């Protein structure tokens, strides 16, 4: 009979100890999670392997007619990723060209964003005539991404115009025959 009493006494001691351990916890508990989101401002032209394009003019076959621009190029896409800062709620993409070609206007138009992107995508400007001065081509970009590669983001249309036409900056009288002249077009994403 003493054996049973010792077992019962040990059981009560273990139960008493375990209920004391539980007594220090409460019905709720919490902890913190620290979250870090980087500020992002990235831009590129796709497809990267073939982003250098060639545009030109066709000579007239009849005396008295001007040179005519070849078909516009629509193969390039503007991609960007943006996480806005608290201080600057939106960003813009600007465009400029490093060389003005005498007698020629280079026009660029960005279409509305399409593809697999999300967030607050920017709004394209109307057709721009490229110059050495930065011009806003996409405005109002918030925290957003366009998707990567061709068929994502803003499709770009490049077209040439010989000067002196409606809205022309260049003058037809400045045209000069040349085998090839290279101009570099630069896109920059920046805070407003």
Detailed description of the structure:
- With 192 residues, the protein is mainly beta.
- Helix content is 11%, strand content 35%.
- It contains 1 helix and 13 strands; from the N terminus they run H-E-E-E-E-E-E-E-E-E-E-E-E-E.
- The protein has one helix at residues 2-22; strands spanning 40-46, 57-58, 68-69, 73-83, 91-97, 104-110, 118-119, 123-124, 128-129, 135-141, 144-145, 154-162, 185-191.
- The strands form 3 sheets. Strands 1, 4, 6, 7, 9, 11 and 12 form a 7-stranded antiparallel β-sheet that branches. Strands 8-10-5-13 form a 4-stranded antiparallel β-sheet, with no helix packed on it. A two-stranded antiparallel sheet has the order 2-3.
- The model has no long low-confidence stretch (mean pLDDT 89).
């Amino acid at each position: 009979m003493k054996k049973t009493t010792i077992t019962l006494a040990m059981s009560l001691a273990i139960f008493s100890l375990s209920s004391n351990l539980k007594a220090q916890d409460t019905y709720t508990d919490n902890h913190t999670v620290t979250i870090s989101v980087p500020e992002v401002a990235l831009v590129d032209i796709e497809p990267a392997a073939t982003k250098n394009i060639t545009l030109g003019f066709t000579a007239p076959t009849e005396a008295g007619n001007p040179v005519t621009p070849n078909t516009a190029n629509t193969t390039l896409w503007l991609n960007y990723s943006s996480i806005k800062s608290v201080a600057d709620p939106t960003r813009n993409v600007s465009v400029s060209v490093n060389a003005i070609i005498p007698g020629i206007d280079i026009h660029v138009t960005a279409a509305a964003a399409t593809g697999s992107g999300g967030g607050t995508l920017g709004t394209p400007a109307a057709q721009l005539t490229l110059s050495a001065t930065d011009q806003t081509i996409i405005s109002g970009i918030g925290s957003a991404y366009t998707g990567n590669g061709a068929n994502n983001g803003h499709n770009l249309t490049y077209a040439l115009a010989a000067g002196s036409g409606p809205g022309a900056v260049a003058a037809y009288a400045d045209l000069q025959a040349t085998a090839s002249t290279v101009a570099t077009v630069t896109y920059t994403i920046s805070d407003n």
